[in-house]
Amino acid sequence: MSTKTGPQRYPGASRANWYQDDFGGDPMEVNVVVLHTTEGRTLPGYEGGATAPNLTAVPDLAAKKLKWYQHFDIETSSRALVNLRGGVETNTLNVCQVELVGTCDPKTQKKWMGAGQAHIYWPEAPDWALEGVARFLSWMHEQHGVPLSGPKEWPAYPESYGSGGQRFTAAEWTDFKGICGHMHVAENVHGDPGAIDFARLLKHAKADLDVDDDDTPGGTGSTTTPAKPKIPAFPGRKYFTAGASNAHVLALGKQLVKRGFGDHYKVGPSRTWGEADRLNVRDFQKSRKELRGDADGTPGPLTWRLLFS
User: Which band of pLDDT confidence, cut at 50, 70 and 90, is reported for residue 211?
Assistant: First the structure.
């Protein structure tokens, strides 16, 4: 059984349609986000939760923002993917699923437009809608270490339906970490979310984290603007638990020493998280007014960002 780590509720999400108490689900350490589109204009009923994802984003078109509903914990398996008996794991593997209310089907788009029914056609989603999804993805990156990357191919619907070239093989799906669409998932023949502008979505998510993709100084191609200090993305709290051993612990320790907060190390930082690491992080947290109120020695996104900035 996997252990859930980090926050399990997306800040601000409503639990008015909470299904975990009825359907349970398996705990898992999430490193994949799957994007769906509902092909409808309102919050689905999901057959009482039997086919629900972890979260649903409902566009408030008048306010130009997304309203989020959470149905399962971030790291509890939800139920929106096909999972064939004897095949690969889908819902229960390592996946947080998000439904975006709206359509990816150009025929549906045309029908709704003709009827004067307001909606979002996700391949042509406005920036405010993409930014709303991107903020969730950046939160998943910071809190759960989901990579801000994914497949190159996001074909338009209906070409994306069926067993198109974008679909992962069983092995590719099992090895995948990052953000993908329903149309990429092994065993699933669905075509959503179609040709959503994935590059723009990632750009918004990285901007939300102040991550600069451009290798040129300043990230704009300019040769005169000084480059911002490069801050590695926070990998997630699960890498800093008792006995954890990984490169992120070592990087944190080296940065603590560099910043003058390595007093509790006897021989220096290592790859294994221990009490000396926690005490050094606590000392750093106490040194910053932004962190003093919760100086528990456990690194979170703000501690990480301030330490490496």
Answer: low
Residue 212's Cβ-count burial label (10 Å; 0-12, 13-18, 19+) is middle
CA separation for the pair 143, 77 (Å, rounded): 18
As a whole number of angstroms, the distance between CA 73 and CA 96 comes to: 9
Model pTM above 0.85: no
Nearest to 99 by CA among 29, 52, 41: 52
Cis amide leading into 158 (omega within 30): yes
Contacting residues for 26 by C-beta, under 8 A, at least 6 apart = 1, 2, 76, 77, 92
Query: What residue type is 249 in one-letter code?
Result: V
Task: Kindly tell me if the per-residue pLDDT of 206 is higher than 50.
Answer: yes
In the sheet that holds 55-60, the strands lie side by side as 65-70, 55-60, 95-100, 32-37, 178-181
